[in-house]
Amino acid sequence: MLIAAAVCPCPPLLVPEVAAGAAGELDTLRAACLDAVGVLAAARPDRLIVVGPAERDGRGPHPQGTPGSFGGFGVDLAVRLGDWDEPAGEASERALPPSLAVAAWLLERARWQAAPVEGLGVGEPLAAERCREVGRELAAQAERVALLVMGDGSACRTVKAPGYLDERAAAFDEAVARALGAADIGALAELDEQLAAELKAAGRAPLQVLAGAGEGAALKGELRYEGAPYGVGYFIAMWS
Known about the structure:
Elements: E1 2-8, H1 16-19, H2 27-42, E2 47-53, E3 60-62, E4 67-69, E5 78-80, H3 98-109, E6 117-122, H4 128-139, E7 145-150, H5 169-182, H6 185-189, H7 193-198, H8 204-213, E8 221-227, E9 234-239
Parallel strand pairs: 1-7, 2-6, 2-7
Antiparallel strand pairs: 1-9, 3-6, 4-5, 8-9
């Protein structure tokens, strides 16, 4: 059963080495993400599952110890998904997608030791109902499951945003923020897949996985951050 969840954005710029000279611009966001991970640890889960968007080669399960890298962003920095003191197992040969690599960096930075960790890369084309089914399956994996959901809102909030300016983007992000703050699984489940794709909202599928996992859990939500630095919608929320 889902006993706690945290939602965090997943831009590689959260990692100071990637952000380089601009690292200070995201200090507040970075600290809030680390605080959210701390709240998950305090919930004392039996298992932590990290869910994030992934391209085709990164979709599916990623066991504890799976390596990741920020080499694709010009930084020689490697991470692993939990189990940092143990050698990587044979099942850890496939690399983490960027969203889960950011999560691995957060967990390592927060010195996560509260529970075993596993990852799940979710394809953005995954239909809403299938996302919810996946969430239900995740919540049933242990008596006390926690989710760390990595995903961004629209990427069209300003003319300098990755997707340029789309007048629909602000309203989309506001709806997501309201749903996260109220732990409104119905509102997350009903996010418009086509609109999310047009707005380049990389968190739509992971958020709908959260909606499925939260069914019947009666969790309360708290929105801790909402903003659009660089024209991309970012949210940090806690469900407990």
